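To fix ideas, we close by showing one paired sequence and structure record:
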Amino acid sequence: MANLPATAAAVLAVLLFGVALVSMTNGATMVAGLCFISASLVIYLRETRLVEG
C-alpha cells in the first residue's frame, strides 16, 4: 500500500520546483528562492518523518 502523506509531500516538492523554475525565468528571484527552500524543507520532512524504514 502506498504511503499517501509521503506521496503527497513528493508531489508538493515537484510543484514547488516547477513554480521556482517558472519564477526564475520571469525574473522573480525572491519567489524562486523561497520555493527552492520550501521544496528542500518538504523533502527533508518527507524523508525524516513520513517514510518508514
Summary: The chain has two helices and no strands. The chain has a mean pLDDT of 95. The two ends are 14 Å apart (CA to CA). The CA atoms of residues 5 and 50 lie 7 Å apart.
